[in-house]
Each structure stands twice: as C-alpha cells, then as structure tokens.
C-alpha cells in the first residue's frame, strides 16, 4: 500500500506594515482582522492555529487600540493558536546594519515571549534576499529552524526543499524553502475543479522537489488576508476524497519538527541568497529612494555607534540610561526596516511617512546626546575650573589617535586648541563665519529693554593627532586670541596631496596616485547617466538607449591648509529631460555634478562628496571610479561580521530567459559599509554613507557606484530585466512623482587605493575611521542653537568629574555594539572577528570586572577569563561592576 504524502496546511497572513498603503491603513485593518481571528479561535477548537507573520509589531499595534483584549490575545499566543515572533518587523536583511537585525530579533523575541511564546522559526517569507549571517543570528536566539522563500537556485537545493543553512562562522539552522511562495493555499477549497486544476499540480510539483520526505508544506495565506473560516471543514473534505495526500491543519513549528525528526537532509547551502530563478530579488531596489537609504544609515550610525555607547559612559558616571526613549526609537526604526519600507517601493505618502519617521528618530538621537554631553561636560568644568573647554567623547572601546571634526564657537576669529596640560593640537579651519549675537530682552524697572549681544564666530575645523581613551572622553581647551590660525587658502595649483595620495587635475581628467607603491589610475572619476525604464522595484535599461558618460571636468577650486587639502571639480552634460525624450530628444536639461575631494594628513582615504541638483526624470546616475585592477574576476564587500566575495560576471546571465528566471541575475550587489576589487598587485575599495549599490565593470576595471535612480511609477509590466507582470500590485499603477528625486542631493563616500592586497582587518579599521565613532561638545554660551537643547535649563545630577575617563578598553577584536543590557544595568559589548584566523580578545576596565559570555538574547551567562573568537565569528559579552 502506498504511503500517503502529508500536506501541512499552514493558515497565515503576511502583514506588510506599509506599502502602496500607509501604516495607518494597515493598523486599521489589523484591529478588525485580529478581533475576528481571536473570536474565531475562541469558538472553534478545530482551528489549529494561525501564523501572524512572525511579527511582534502587530501585537503592539493591536493592543494600542484594544488594550482590553490583552488577556485574550496572550492566551491565544501561549496556547500556540496565534504565532508571533521572532521578528519585531519583517526587516530587509541586506539594506540595514547588522546590529539592526540583531535588535529587531531581540525586541521581537523578548516581546513575544512576554506574551507567552515566540515562534521558533526564522521566518522570511518575502524579504528581497538573505543575509549570509541570518542562520547564525537565529541560532543566537535559540532558533533552530528557518522557513524562507527567495534567493535559492534549483541546483543549490539538490532535490530537497529542506536543507542545512550555514553562516560563515559555521553556525547552522535547519531550513525549508517555500518553492511556490507563501500563498499557494491562499484560495484553498475542496471543489473538484480547484483540486484537479490547481491543488494537485502544485502538490505534485512540491513532491517532485522533496526527494527525501513525504511531508509537503502548503502555506495558505497572503498579504493582509482575513483568516479563512472554512479551512477545518475544507481539510476534512479533502481527506474524505481519499486521494494520495493526507491533509492536516498545522503550523511552521510542527512541520519543521516532524519533517526533520523523520528524515535526514544532507545538503548544505551557505552565502548570501540572491538567486532570481523562482522569485524576484529586486537587486536594483538598493538605489531606489536614495534619501531614505541615506537618512537610515545616518540614524543607525548615531544610535549604534554614538548614542548607545555615550549613554553607557553616562550611566557609568551616574546618569540615567535612556532605555525607554531608545525602545521607542528602535521600534520606529524597525518600521522603517520592513522590506518594502526601506526598499522605497511604496506610494509617495508612505515614503513621506518613512522620511518623517527617520527625521524624528534623528532629532531624538541628537537631543539625547545633547543632554548627556552637556551634563557630563558641566561636571568636568566644575571639577577642572575651565570655562572654555570642549570634550571629545570616544564611543568606541579602543584607544583613539587620529583626526577629529568639530564645530567651535569663539569671540575671536583666531584661537588655539590644547590639552589640559597645555600641549598644542594642530588643526585646520575648513569653514568659518561671523554670526550676529542678536538681541536679548532685559527686564528693568522701566520695562523690557532690548540689549545688543556681541557677535561671534562659528568655525568648522579638523584637528590632527588627537588622542582619546577608549569608551570615555578627554578634555581639550580653546584659547582665544592666538597669533595665527591655519585657514584654507585658494591656490593656482592643480594637485592636492597628503602622506598617502596625490590627486592631480589635468586637461579635464583626474589622476590618483598612491605614493608608497606608485600605483596610479588615470581618468579616476567619470559619471554614467542612463535611461531608467523601470519602476520603484527595479532599474530597467531602455532598449536602444546608450548610456551617456560625463568625462571632461572643469577645475572649480583648490584649497590647501596644513591638515586638509580640497579640490572641487564640476562635470556637466546636457541630457534628455525624461524617458520620452531618450530615444527622440526634444527636451534636454543640464546634469551638473560638483565633486569635492578631501585629503587629510595621516589618513589613507580620499574623501569624496558629490552635489547634484537633479532636474532630470527617469534616469540612473552612477559614479564610475577607475580601479588599478585590470579584468577583475571578483569583487568583495562586507556583510555582517566578515567579507563576502562575489563574481563580477554571473554565468547564469547567459540563459536566464530561456531558463525561465523571474528576474535577470545581474551582478549588481549591495554595500553594507564597503566594497571593492583587488589582485596581487593592486587594491581599491569604497567606503559609503548611505550608498547601497555597486557593480564592477570587468572590461574596463571600473567600480560603478550607483548614486541614485529617478523613476516615477510603482509597478510596470515587462521590464527588460524583469519580464511579465509588475511586482506587487499588478492591476494598478501608482504614480510616484516624489521618487523622481527632483531635488538637491549630496552623496558621500571615501576611496582607499593601495599597491597589493589589503588585509580584512585593515578594511574594517578604515570603516571605523570613516564612520566617526566619536562626538564632541563645547562648554560655551555664545550659541545655543547648534545643539538644540542648549537654550533650555536642565538639572545637573553629577558633579566633579576628571578631565579624562575610560570605562573599558577592548583589544584584539572589532566592536559591533556597546549598550546597556535589555534587562538591567549590565553593559553589553558585541565583539567580532572578520578575519580567517582565530583571535584572542581582551577587555580591560577599572570598574567593570565581572566578564561573562552570553548569547544574542543576552541569556545563558558563562563566566570567563578569556575571550576567543573563531574566524568570521562574533561574541556577546556581559560586563558587571559598579555600573550595575
């Protein structure tokens, strides 16, 4: 007798937080749908359960408007009738900081556990590609299984939809791929026509892809769907047909436990999963709505690399850690990180909401840092008797020596900067302006009087050879009225240089030379402007259109100072005004790109800033950076806690249409912090701030960094690289004029070029240098608007602090995060080792003596005297002491 194959019918809803609709729309639907779901489950014991998209956010949103249903919902979650978690929101895993993914899971798991149960599945039904470290992140929260849809090719599966998914650090989870997506059973019925024409062919296809298992997973839901009341009766009727299948109402946890307990699946898959065979990855969504990506990167950096470690310093000195505020900020940020949201493939209303959300978080981060810096600085000034001081807060747990950017306010245009012991610090002014002091109102016996306030100077400067202790601060003095000051001077030269590089402008082109080895590249920077016939999901080339290359530049200015040299050049080209004019140009507009290069003393970076006032529609602009590597075969980039190598040419491109791929597997990749190319003779890498997309052009060795896309539609059929229906909503085109990016934009990145290869550790060190892990604060009363909260009175709860302080010093590893523990005052430091060799790390602290190892959930402590980091791995450390 033939064994029946068992079909696990899993009712669920994929709940997009926002998309072509707003988050308010989503939340209104949520309340109605959840009310109905709870009522149904309470009154129907035959209804096994319902997966609510693995998100804690839906619980928070529902209870905001239905607090009276807290107990009812909690009972359903405890009984595993409603499944939520482990995510807070379904985050895009390739467009956000690695630490943001950890926190998303932390808030998701902790929140759903308080509700009774966090689903033990790393559930990834719809995100556009999988980060290579996701298995490890799941394992760090005690999650042994993953269910995902996108990114895997058939030849990777080796005949089974079940496989072992492995991270670079060796951690694994047991995984299942949803070969037919998350909605094959959305319209499940027992009608003969549906069973014969749709259900049985789908199950036959699934059976053919499950060589070593008779268990078939049939996800039965869709986007924002209402629970299907008829499913218990439908399953009963399907079983009565006595066919080759046994149907059971189930859930993902039960399916994975049964399937993996009954079978062995030898196949292992690793690396980032961005295959385009069965589902769309939207590789070029990484450059859609650049403004969202840029502001998100700014906000992530402020929270992770500045605010949280600064708050840890403040807590160790006696201040309150702003946990409640950070909780609010993180949860708002998780909404931004939902895959559609951060992708920018939304209506203009939704994208505007996302930008406002990010702007609010940005202001909150600035305000919290303002308060902490001001309170600590006040206590330092009280102890040291110094009025005109400024504090360098170093928010990395390593001793620092290098350059520092800051803003100072002085009465005199000329001033000096020195340490408390009087050692002068070299600096160069980069910008200076005289500001009117305005007027103030003085109350007198005769009434209010306006009193003129003397003016003052606002000065931007770069200090060199500044030292600061690890995870602490140092105090510097501002001495007014110096004899001389180092200001930039415009020169007639056409070259700027520092210890590492020389950049020369000659006859409209740029040449970059690395001094130590003599490696040089001509035509260092050009730009490419091409038509974009795509939509908010995907760039699409326009057949017949030839990309326009901005080659010749004009030299605008060269400025030199002792610590900084700058060169500004301008590229201009007249280009078609929009898509309609690309093939038959009748209306044209200028595309002008002004680029400023900056070289600092004692720094191995070429800092680059592009300013564009875009007036052109339906196009893509890329910076073409000439590398010294000829015919590169691979590129590299950081992802998570190490570096990933990627082919410059994808062999699957040759026959992707004939093989029925859903999307062209173009070799365009995502940047987290940096990417580049190298061989035995030369290296070039780019370190970005918010720029998320690159391609390496093998024929000429150029590194193409996408600056932005300009496209005004959400949804378009039959793209050159994406045949068939429009993505998302295929029966409605949403016009998105804001996505044309008709505005002024600034793009920033840095270039590192070297003769020979560069060690992985060196790249991560440069990333930390470029993304400043410090903040500054001046004790002054001339200007109370630069730091917005300076104009208000606040309490000063601590007093008499020394001029220098260090909380903890880490050696031997890189630092991903420094924060307060989720459940108390202990300090959490996450270390990582991106190299191929095991390393020993150490933490030295006068106040934090008790060191233990913990997991990502900050549980399961194990006291230790040594910290060993395997290749490509990370480790979470809990520190206890006086701050606890």
Overview of the structural elements:
This protein is an alpha+beta fold. The protein folds into four domains: 5-279, Glycoside hydrolase 38, N terminal domain (7-stranded beta/alpha barrel, Alpha-Beta Barrel); 281-485 and 773-807, Up-down Bundle (Substrate Binding Domain Of Dnak, Chain:A, Domain 2), CATH 1.20.1270; 495-710 and 744-767, Golgi alpha-mannosidase II, domain 4 (Beta-galactosidase, Chain A, domain 5, Distorted Sandwich); 808-881, Immunoglobulin-like (Sandwich), CATH 2.60.40. Helices cover 23% and strands 34% of the residues. It is built from 14 helices and 50 strands. Helix 1 (23-42) packs across helix 2 and helix 11 packs antiparallel against helix 13.
Top keywords for this entry?
6-stranded antiparallel β-sheet; globular; 4 domains; Substrate Binding Domain Of Dnak, Chain:A, Domain 2; single chain; alpha+beta; 884 residues; 7-stranded beta/alpha barrel; hydrolase activity; Beta-galactosidase, Chain A, domain 5; glycosidase; 50 strands; 10-stranded antiparallel β-sheet
Q: What's the topology here?
A:
Blueprint: E1 5-14, H1 23-42, E2 50-51, H2 57-65, H3 70-78, E3 82-83, H4 98-114, E4 121-124, H5 134-140, E5 145-148, H6 154-157, E6 162-166, E7 172-177, H7 192-208, E8 215-223, H8 231-240, E9 245-249, H9 252-262, E10 268-270, H10 290-316, H11 323-337, H12 339-343, H13 348-384, E11 389-394, E12 400-410, E13 415-419, E14 427-435, E15 439-444, E16 447-452, E17 456-468, E18 472-480, E19 489-490, E20 495-497, E21 501-506, E22 509-514, E23 520-521, E24 525-531, E25 548-550, E26 553-560, E27 564-576, E28 588-600, E29 606-613, E30 619-626, E31 634-639, E32 642-647, E33 669-670, E34 674-678, E35 682-688, E36 693-697, E37 702-710, E38 713-714, E39 734-735, E40 744-755, H14 760-770, E41 774-778, E42 804-806, E43 809-811, E44 814-820, E45 827-833, E46 839-844, E47 848-854, E48 862-863, E49 867-869, E50 873-881
Parallel strand pairs: 1-8, 1-9, 2-3, 4-5, 5-7, 6-10
Antiparallel strand pairs: 6-7, 11-18, 11-41, 12-17, 13-18, 14-17, 15-16, 18-42, 19-26, 20-21, 21-22, 22-23, 24-25, 24-30, 26-27, 27-28, 28-29, 29-40, 30-37, 31-32, 31-34, 33-36, 34-35, 35-40, 36-37, 38-39, 43-46, 44-45, 45-50, 46-49, 47-48, 47-50
């Amino acid at each position: 007798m033939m064994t029946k194959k068992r079909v696990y019918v899993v009712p669920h809803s994929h709940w997009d937080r926002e998309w072509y609709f707003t988050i308010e729309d989503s939340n209104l639907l949520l309340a109605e749908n959840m009310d109905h779901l709870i009522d149904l489950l309470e009154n129907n014991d035959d209804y096994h359960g319902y997966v609510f998209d693995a998100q804690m956010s839906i619980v928070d949103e529902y209870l905001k408007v239905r607090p009276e249903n807290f107990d009812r919902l909690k009972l359903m979650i405890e009984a595993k009738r409603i499944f939520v978690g482990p995510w807070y929101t379904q985050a895009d895993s390739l467009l956000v900081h690695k630490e943001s993914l950890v926190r998303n899971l932390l808030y998701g798991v902790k929140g759903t556990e308080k509700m009774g149960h966090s689903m033990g599945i790393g559930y990834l039904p719809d995100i556009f590609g999988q980060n290579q470290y996701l298995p490890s992140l799941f394992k760090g929260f005690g999650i042994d299984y993953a269910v995902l849809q996108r990114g895997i090719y058939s030849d990777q599966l080796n005949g089974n939809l079940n496989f072992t998914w492995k991270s670079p650090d060796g951690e694994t989870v047991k995984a299942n791929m949803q070969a037919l997506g998350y909605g094959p059973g959305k319209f499940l019925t027992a009608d003969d026509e549906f069973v014969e024409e749709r259900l049985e062919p789908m199950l036959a296809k699934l059976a053919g892809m499950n060589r070593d298992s008779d268990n078939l997973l049939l996800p039965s839901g869709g986007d924002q769907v209402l629970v299907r009341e008829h499913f218990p009766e439908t399953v009963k009727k399907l079983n009565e047909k006595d066919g080759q299948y046994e149907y059971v109402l189930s859930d993902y946890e039960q399916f994975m436990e049964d399937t993996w307990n009954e079978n062995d699946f030898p196949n292992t898959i690793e690396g980032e999963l961005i295959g385009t065979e069965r589902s769309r990855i939207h590789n070029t969504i990484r450059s859609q709505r650049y403004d969202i990506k840029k502001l998100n990167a700014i906000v992530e950096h402020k929270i992770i690399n500045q605010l949280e470690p600064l708050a840890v310093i403040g807590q160790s000195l006696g201040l309150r850690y702003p946990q409640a505020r950070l909780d609010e900020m993180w949860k708002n940020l998780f909404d931004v990180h939902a895959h559609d949201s951060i992708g920018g493939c939304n209506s203009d209303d939704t994208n505007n909401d996302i930008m406002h959300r990010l702007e609010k978080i940005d202001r909150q981060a600035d305000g919290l840092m303002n308060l902490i810096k001001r309170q600590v600085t006040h206590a330092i000034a009280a102890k040291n008797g110094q009025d005109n001081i400024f504090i360098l807060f170093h928010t990395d747990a390593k001793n620092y020596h290098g350059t520092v950017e800051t803003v100072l306010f002085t009465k005199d245009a000329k001033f000096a900067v020195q340490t408390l012991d009087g050692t002068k610090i070299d600096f160069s002014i980069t910008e200076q302006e005289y500001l009117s002091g305005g007027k103030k109102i003085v109350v007198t016996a005769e009434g209010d009087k306006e009193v003129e306030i003397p003016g003052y100077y606002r000065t931007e400067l770069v200090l060199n050879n500044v030292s600061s202790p690890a995870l602490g601060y140092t105090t510097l003095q501002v001495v007014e009225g110096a004899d001389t000051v180092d200001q930039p001077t415009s020169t007639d030269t056409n070259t700027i240089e520092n210890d590492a590089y020389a950049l020369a402008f000659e006859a409209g082109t740029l040449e970059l030379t690395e001094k130590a080895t003599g490696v040089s590249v001509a035509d260092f920077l050009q730009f490419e402007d091409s038509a974009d016939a795509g939509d908010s999901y995907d760039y699409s080339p326009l057949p017949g259109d030839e990309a326009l290359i901005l080659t010749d530049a004009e030299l605008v200015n060269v400025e030199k100072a002792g610590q900084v040299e700058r060169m500004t050049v301008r590229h201009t080209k007249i280009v078609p005004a929009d898509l309609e004019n690309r093939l038959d140009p009748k209306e044209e507009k200028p595309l002008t790109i002004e680029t400023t290069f900056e070289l600092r003393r004692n720094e191995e970076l070429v800092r680059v800033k592009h300013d564009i006032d875009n007036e052109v529609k339906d196009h893509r602009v890329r910076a073409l950076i000439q590398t010294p590597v000829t015919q590169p075969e691979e590129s590299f980039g950081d992802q998570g806690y190490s570096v990933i190598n990627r082919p410059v040419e994808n062999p699957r491109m040759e026959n992707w249409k004939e093989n029925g791929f859903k999307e062209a597997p173009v070799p365009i990749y995502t940047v987290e912090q940096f990417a580049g190319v190298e061989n035995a003779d030369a290296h070039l890498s780019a370190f970005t701030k918010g720029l998320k997309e690159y391609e390496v052009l093998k024929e000429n060795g150029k590194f193409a960094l996408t600056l932005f896309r300009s496209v005004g539609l959400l949804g378009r059929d039959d793209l050159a690289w994406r045949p068939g229906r429009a993505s998302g909503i295929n029966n409605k085109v949403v016009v998105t004029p804001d996505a044309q990016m008709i505005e002024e934009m600034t793009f920033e990145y840095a270039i590192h070029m070297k003769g020979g290869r560069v060690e992985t550790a060196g790249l991560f060190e440069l990333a930390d240098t470029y993304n400043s892990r410090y903040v500054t604060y001046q004790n002054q009363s001339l200007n109370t608007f630069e730091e917005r909260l300076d104009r208000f009175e606040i309490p000063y709860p601590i007093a008499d602090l020394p001029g220098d302080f260090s909380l903890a010093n880490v050696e031997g590893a890189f630092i991903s995060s420094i924060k307060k523990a989720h459940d108390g005052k202990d300090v959490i430091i996450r270390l990582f080792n991106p190299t191929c060799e095991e390393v020993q790390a150490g933490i030295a602290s006068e106040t934090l003596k008790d060191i233990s190892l913990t997991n990502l959930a900050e549980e399961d402590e194990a006291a230790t005297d040594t910290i060993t980091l395997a290749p490509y791995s990370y480790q979470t450390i809990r520190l206890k002491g006086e701050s606890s």
